[in-house]
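[Target chain]
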Amino acid sequence: MREFTIGKNDAGQRLDRFLSKAMPLLPPALLQKYIRIRRIKCNGARCQRDQRLAEGDVLSLYINDEFFEPPREDNLFLTLFQPRLDVLYEDEHILLADKRPGMVVHADETEKVNTLINHIQAYLYQKREWNPKRENAFAPALCNRIDRNTGGIVIAAKDAESLRILTAKIRAREITKKYLCAVLGRMTPPEGKLSCFLLKDESKNQVQVYRRPVPGGKSAETLYRTLRSRGELSLVEAELLTGRTHQIRASFAGAGHPLLGDGKYGRGEVNRRYHETRQALYSYYLRFDFPTDAGILNYLKSREFQVQKVPFAEKYFPSGSGKG
């Protein structure tokens, strides 16, 4: 329990407005709930959110200590009263989230609060599966990441051992990930492999595609399979054999078949005609191959997971998800 004694400079304020400034981590909806269920009292009595505070009033707050801390990047998850999370799979060690296009996975210069990891941490905190006060250093963490405007499966580890194992498995390419993408034109042949070299321009966060090795360039290999074609668009399944920045987007654009909606590597006039501002790319399939020992995660060996609803596939290839 914490107490605030109202001084002269705070007198006259509404209760809820004073508390929102005193505890910026406490979500407004949770503040209203705590007032309603009497976890916030004024002079030992029930109070109302719009009552005016007087000098000398004593506020008693029966609220978790975390909400009294100053805002930092590692505790902003507390401000999310209702986490928005599409959970594809969950057990005691991992969580698979279906990230929607438009959400960043980690905080960046444009977004600090509404990130996938914050929503996952808020979700686990509210389920009482994780409490940062009981941990010295570990916090639930993402094992892989995808671009803001790409949707699909992201793996989160709930404990340090699972994070260590999955990080190693991803590095050893013992986890298969497949993507769906809508590309312009028809692939020739309809199934095959795209091989090229990608050179990244750090200042632009963009890569250039080359057919031959270039200084600083990295080889990129992508398997693809055409699932369906309709008009000028094709629904293609892609699997990364290497993991390079913007590999799928740049490789298909380099092959003459840019992704619909891609603002960096696509065709602006086509994107505007379709009113698409995000690349049509979705990480829709995941399989834990695990040819080597996976410790506490061995039970996941050969398990596979698939997102059932990919928005652009349903929109432009309406006969189903596009498989087959």
